[in-house]
Design a protein that fits this description.
The chain has 18 helices and nine strands. With 429 residues, it is of the alpha/beta class. The chain has a four-stranded parallel beta sheet with strand order 7-6-8-9, sandwiched between helices. It has a three-stranded antiparallel beta sheet with strand order 2-4-3. Strands 1-5 form a two-stranded antiparallel ribbon. A hairpin with an 8-residue loop joins β3 and β4. α8 packs across α18, α10 runs antiparallel to α14 and α13 crosses α14. The chain is globular.
């Protein structure tokens, strides 16, 4: 293959692309970022083009339910809303139809990314209106869908104009998990992608080793990304057996830092230092600091005020230095059933019993998916799997019931088979 044109991204051009061509062993240590960190949002540069066929949108059949976007494992099919001016400036093949609901008066389009799609057909199967069909990828490319995708990405995100707490509304939010290396039709990524659409700009993730750490954190290929303001999930992976403790430590540290910030903010108010407008916002933040949506409305204004007045008093300077925890951090602990039921259960049980505000997502594939399909305690009775070739003899471990026994743990078992319930459970939890 001919060398790919430079992207202008130093990391992608000098590190990620050699990794893609199996030349990572030739990279000098000095080329790596210090601290074991990797930039986010690099998978959008991979353009693997591995699908033989990709979806094609049939606009006249579409009822704008956004189900296709909801279930897409790789965030390669998305709804876009355009103004008349933007629609007129689009490529000639960029067909739209009049938008419904909160976007009446605007234009709607479902757009596919042909070079990022894996061809799983999940979107086609879930569409209730026969508004998608699979076509040869060459036909899609010849029809201008690559250029259409590039144009769609220039359209400003308009998720703030609708309610993100519905199935349809959630899919107008920019997904902050995209183009991962997960398998074609992956059953895990749609749920994590949905979480990023609901909380992604203020998420911190502790991820257990397993499938989700492979598609979520392969060195150099980061599918977690940021929104237009540069906000997105912070992700870390420790070990298989201690992931719950790893995330628990993050949550405790964040809670302690935010309490210190609240105490300092109250000291600013009591001492009557800083402008009245700043003290008013600080008082509001103290009251509402545990509400992510409320704080988001004035977070930027508060940070700007702290920046402007940080030299006026040492207490305000201290608040400015703690500005990264102004938002209500949404702490997540994510892993598979092997981690949650088997190897990491002791730590998870300890965290669940602690009363600390931590969200846990168990991606229950009912076997050790990442290591070849061995039976776990989550495997159902009678299932044939590695280490259970005669059929598993024990019942599936009911980890949800165990969690509920504490009385203060919210538990939900969800599936994309009921999308509205999945959204509601994430929000209620």
């Amino acid at each position: 293959d001919a060398p790919k044109a430079p992207t202008g991204n130093t990391f992608v051009d000098s590190i990620m692309r050699p990794l893609m061509t199996m030349d990572g062993g030739e990279l000098p240590v000095s080329s790596m970022l210090t601290g074991g960190q990797f930039p986010t949002g690099t998978t959008k540069f991979t353009k693997r083009a591995i699908a033989a066929s990709v979806p094609e949108w049939i606009s006249e059949n579409c009822t704008q339910c956004n189900y296709c976007s909801m279930v897409c494992p790789h965030a390669v099919i998305r709804p876009f809303v355009l103004t008349d001016t933007e629609a007129e400036a689009a490529p000639s093949t960029f067909e739209t139809r009049k938008a419904k609901g909160d976007f009446v008066g605007m234009n709607y389009r479902i757009q596919i990314a042909p070079y990022d799609c894996t061809g799983c057909e999940v979107c086609v199967e879930v569409c209730p209106d026969d508004a998608l069909k699979m076509v040869d990828v060459a036909k899609s490319v010849d029809a201008g869908e690559v250029q259409n995708w590039d144009y769609a990405l220039t359209i400003p995100a308009r998720g703030h104009l609708t309610d993100r707490t519905s199935v349809k509304g959630s899919q107008f939010q920019t997904p902050l998990l995209e183009f991962s290396g997960a398998c074609e039709g992956c059953g895990e990524t749609p749920y994590v992608k949905l979480i990023t659409q609901l909380f992604g700009e203020r998420m911190v993730i502790a991820n257990a080793t397993g499938c989700s750490s492979i598609w979520g954190g392969t060195a150099g290929f980061a599918p977690y990304t940021t929104n237009a303001k540069g906000h997105g999930p912070a992700w870390g992976n420790s070990l298989f057996e201690d992931n719950a403790e790893y995330g628990f430590g993050m949550a405790v540290a964040t809670a302690a830092r935010r309490q210190t910030m609240a105490t300092t903010a109250q000291a600013v108010i009591d001492a009557e230092v800083g402008s009245p407008a700043l003290r008013k916002m600080l008082a509001q933040w103290i009251r509402e600091r545990d509400s992510g949506d409320k704080v988001a409305k004035y977070m930027e204004a508060l940070e700007a005020a702290l920046c402007a007045e940080r030299h006026d008093h040492s207490l305000i300077g201290q608040l400015y230095d703690m500005r990264d925890i102004i938002p209500n951090i949404s702490q997540w602990v994510i892993g598979g059933d092997g981690w949650a039921n088997d190897i990491g259960f002791g730590g998870l049980d300890h965290v669940l019993s602690s009363g600390q505000n931590v969200n846990v997502l168990v991606l229950d594939t009912e076997m050790y998916s990442n290591t070849g399909g061995q039976a776990s305690k989550s495997t159902n009775m009678g299932t044939v799997a590695k280490f259970a070739f005669g059929g598993k003899r024990q019942q599936k471990k009911d980890i949800g019931a165990m969690a509920m026994s504490y009385g203060n743990v919210y538990v939900a078992s969800i599936s994309m088979g009921n999308m509205a319930h999945a959204v509601r459970a994430f929000l209620e939890g």
